[in-house]
Specification:
Rossmann fold, elongated, 434 Repressor (Amino-terminal Domain), 3 domains, alpha/beta, 332 residues, six-stranded mixed sheet, single chain
Length: 332
């Protein structure tokens, strides 16, 4: 049986369509006896309102657009999970777009969100902090609230919640120094604003806590587990003095541990290893991985709460900084 319409409900109840509409939307000015009769018919016919049609009247799509560059990045999809759980209770649904890393692709995805009439947008990851994305927002979504997870764009309608990666890595360097390490190295994958902040923290930490070590040792890690392991081997071959490795992501650190295990290099005896994100992977590898926790849950919930406040016409912080903490495990 096809879906019953509001017009058919009105006919069965012997009332006008506007009366049924007021009942559906819980409006006043409906006789209580009539309201009960309409509600009974709605329940009997398993009626559910057409959200798209309602949006044409209320100017509310109840849809949030979410952009991320790569759905395979578990740290980002986990953040989306937390955000969705917080906002779905308010009746919002979500349009999630996997943009790819190119600036043109990201800009086009912003345009798609505008065409789909989203009420707000959430951009996951610091890679959206670019001039191309800023221009696309200013062009296609100048009045729609846009929230950036771990990125910042200087526009009136843009809000950010950022993990303090730079200070977090700086504190990680202090931690390694207190653990007796003398020559740290840093492995990083993509060049993003977040990773650049991590690298600054590493350089600052080297200058402050390892003043007698050589020039900061920074290497590109590649983009898959095999490359991560190969980068670790190359690093220790060219710099045998390295006794601590910080990786820009937990998955890179897992690749480092794989290489060290295969080469029978003791962890943490010979080399200490740290990751960043405090993902589930940190507790699954062996030895378990010390990781810098950039508090993804807190960051995601803050975005959800701030977005909800803005859509309700309330004030919300334009820029929020979330501090990181070190989760110590066996690898250090």
């Amino acid at each position: 049986m096809g879906k019953v319409t509001i017009y058919e409900i009105a006919k069965q109840a012997g009332v006008s369509v506007s009366t049924v509409s007021r009942v559906v939307n819980n409006k006043a000015n409906v006789n209580e006896k009539t309201r009960k009769r309409v509600l009974a018919l709605l329940e009997k016919n398993n009626y559910s309102p057409n959200v798209a049609a309602r949006g044409l009247v209320t100017q509310s799509s109840k849809m949030i657009g979410i952009l991320l560059t790569d759905l395979r990045t578990t740290h980002h999809t986990e953040g989306i999970y937390y955000i969705q759980r917080e906002l779905e209770e308010c009746g919002y649904c979500f349009l999630i777009i996997n943009t790819g890393r190119g600036d043109e692709e990201k800009a086009q995805s912003v345009k798609v969100l505008r065409e789909r009439q989203v009420e707000a947008a959430i951009l996951i990851g610091s890679t959206f902090q670019s001039e191309a994305v800023k221009e696309a927002i200013a062009t296609y979504m100048p009045t729609i609230p846009v929230f950036l997870a771990n990125g910042q764009i200087d526009l009136e309608n843009c809000y950010s919640v950022v993990a303090d990666d730079q200070h977090g890595v700086y504190r990680a360097m202090e931690y390694l120094s207190r653990r007796g390490r003398r020559c740290p190295a840093f492995l990083v994958d993509y060049h993003t604003p977040s990773n650049e902040a991590k690298e600054r923290g590493f350089r600052d930490g080297c200058a402050h806590f390892f003043p007698h070590s050589p020039e900061p040792i920074i290497r590109e890690a590649g983009t898959d587990v095999a490359a991560y392991a190969a980068s670790a081997r190359e690093l220790l071959t060219s710099h045998p003095e390295v006794d601590a490795i910080i990786a820009s992501e937990d998955v890179i650190a897992a690749g480092v541990l794989k290489a060290l295990n295969e080469e029978a290099i003791s962890v943490p005896g010979r080399v200490a290893v740290m990751g960043i994100n405090n993902s589930a992977l940190a507790e699954l590898v062996s030895p378990s991985l010390t990781s810098l926790d950039n508090r993804l849950l807190d960051l995601s919930i803050t975005i959800a709460h701030n977005l909800r406040s803005v859509l309700q016409g309330k004030e919300a912080a334009k820029n929020t900084l979330v501090s990181a903490t070190i989760r110590e495990r066996e690898s250090t």
